[in-house]
Fold this sequence. Notes:
Elements: E1 5-16, E2 19-30, E3 34-38, H1 45-53, E4 60-65, E5 68-69, E6 80-83, H2 95-105, H3 110-123, H4 139-151, E7 157-161, H5 169-186, E8 189-194, H6 197-203, E9 206-211, E10 214-219, H7 221-226, H8 231-236, E11 241-251, E12 254-259, E13 264-268, E14 280-285, E15 291-293, E16 302-312, E17 319-324, E18 330-334, E19 349-354, E20 359-363
Parallel strand pairs: 3-8, 3-9, 6-7, 7-8
Antiparallel strand pairs: 1-2, 1-4, 4-5, 9-10, 11-12, 11-14, 12-13, 14-20, 15-19, 16-17, 16-19, 17-18
Helix pairs in contact: 2-3, 2-4, 3-4, 4-5
Amino acid sequence: MTSEIDLSCRNINKTFDDFIAVRDVSFEIPRGSFFSILGPSGCGKTTLLRMLAGFLEPSSGDITIKGRSMLGIPPNKRPVNMVFQHLALFPMMTVAENIAYGLRRRKEKPAEIKRKVADALERVGLPGVGDRAISQLSGGQKQRIAIARCLVLEPDVLLLDEPLGALDLKLREHMKVELKKLQQAFGTTFIYITHDQSEAMVMSDNVAVMNSGRFEQVGSPQDLYYNPSTAFVAGFVGESNRFSGTVVSRAGNIVEVKTECGQHLHASERVDLNLASGQKVELFVRPEMIHLSREPQQSTDNSMTGQVENILFDGGNSRLLIRETSSGSEIQVVHPQTSEFSDINKGDTLFLSWKADQSHVFLDTNERGEA
């Protein structure tokens, strides 16, 4: 019976002397899915990837691919291939020779190699370029050739270590879409390492947010964005306005918070934290959740007044930076592209409001004893 899980990690730890690089990481990746590991530099994601590839052995725990443990199995014996940020294509070889390299090392028949190379070029959208030199290719074409060279070997899992990092912004945006199409076309499980949340959110079926060596949350991009389970995820995934404060009271799952600037805000406690009066917390609200008005709003959970300090025009993604009148704190709001707000100017006074269930509240990380 074929396993529905391509890769599984159970309680993986990796230490270097006294430093814990990866802490008790467990996850499963279903066959044929696009899984991203997202986190800031130094969080342990590349160390984890190197363990999956076989370049490092875990200090404890187990890694299985298609139900088979990979402990003690060297990189060249694992059903895994890897695409690096700088691609590592051979400049002295043609495109076809680059793609055929692994097949030749396997000593496959020349006719079969030729067929597989032609098929791989067709599937990555570059038919007929086999005779070209690597130097004749654009950045995006090189990217696809590097992926074709791996996928032609039909690995169970393809590991990608920040492969778009060396590309310019426009090409990177284009390749995000291309990579997702390639993954679906080949049906191979992709494990993608990145510090760029946009890459992870656009391409992935599921994303693991990593921080200080551990997974803070694993879920779909939508779940991470709308239902973060920790303050780190709320602050790292997407844009948010962040307020530090102290719990004043609670009614059911609605928590009242007095911020350090003296504002009284309300948020829905979506994670079962059982927050109590006096606890230090962090409250988050996304810029697009804040309602703008030219008149004060009645019967709203959260309301404040502010002056427009800056207008960041970017079409449908335009934003306002608003200085709150009483506290002096800066609030970021997505600027609605409607006729009502098309004539907003710097210095205008606006009224801001949002509901409690459009906010997230978490125990302050210092209260949890975290760095």
